[in-house]
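B., you asked whether I could sanity-check this one before it goes into the benchmark set. Here's the sequence:
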Amino acid sequence: MKLLYKPFGIIVGLIAGFLARQVFNEIWGHIDEREPPKPTDEESSWGKVLGAAAVQGATFAVTKAAVNRSGAKGFQWLTGIWPGAKRPEKE
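And here's what the prediction gave me:
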């Protein structure tokens, strides 16, 4: 049954990437009205480039974790089977 989760997980991952981009753009819009700088932009300062990368990394990681966790819970609700690692049993 966990094999059945693979396509479900891929779809959830694509949704997570799309949402993360939207959330990052929203957050960056509060930081600076211009587009986030690319590392190869000559005019951008180190601080702005590294700050944009840090915000983007944190945003993508948190959004991906939230969406993947929701996907796993939804899969469990639909099938009754948890798709990931189980908790170790207490001795």
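One thing to flag: The chain has a mean pLDDT of 89. Otherwise nothing jumped out at me.
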